[in-house]
Amino acid sequence: MAKKSAKINLIYLIGMVVAAVGFCVPLFATKITNPITKETTLVRDLSPNGFKFLNFEKFFDKLADGKLDWIALAAILLFCGIILGIVFSLINIKPASTLRLVALLVMATAVGIILVRANSSDFAAWVGKGFWKHAYIGTYMIIGGWGCGLAGWFIGR
Fold first, then answer.
1. What angle separates helix 70-90 from helix 56-64, to the nearest 10 degrees?
2. What is the mean pLDDT of the segment spanning 79-97?
3. pLDDT of residue 1
4. Alpha-carbon dihedral angle through residues 23, 26, 29, 30, given to the nearest 10 degrees
5. What's residue 16's pLDDT?
């Protein structure tokens, strides 16, 4: 029975590590337009990773002004969900399964915030028409890691 539990923790841990790596690699392909020829080129070397969206100074400055930077909040939640998921899979405590689910829900909330806020602004046209076209390896790794973590959590129950 102990070996089965170790494998299930490993599936969840692999999912969280894949999501963590996805947060560190480029999330989107950057589009650059040449002003002379009007040609658009996708440049993957200049693409932002998740840490570009973790701007605590900007987040707290806006919060002090009574505004909320939703994308920064979502990045913070996503980062915390990934880190907590890894920590909860490595420590051995009684409600570990519940805590792992909480980490997955925090990550899902972050993605929900991004999608809701993106659809309530001018950013919606970009998300609707070009989000998946410009998504890069980090976006897919986060989604795949979340799916693997969710599968590990379900198998563990």
1. 130
2. 87
3. 47
4. 110
5. 93
Of 21, 83, 70, give the one whose Cα is nearest residue 50. 21
- 3-class state of residue 132 by DSSP: helix
**Rounded distance, CA 99 to CA 14, Å?**
17
Half-sphere exposure of 85 (CA within 13 A, CB side): 34
Taking only Cα atoms into account, the Rg of the chain, rounded to an integer number of angstroms, comes to: 18
The Cα–Cα gap between 140 and 135 comes to 8
CA angle (95 as vertex; 92, 101 as ends), nearest 5: 105
| Dihedral sign, Cα of residue 35, residue 41, residue 44, residue 48 | positive
Alpha carbon separation from 49 to 93, 98, 109 (Å, rounded)? 33, 29, 19
Dihedral sign for Cα atoms in the order 68, 69, 72, 73:
positive
Question: What are the DSSP calls for 42-55, one per residue?
Answer: EESTT---HHHH--
- pLDDT single digits (tens) 51-68: 777 777 777 888 888 888
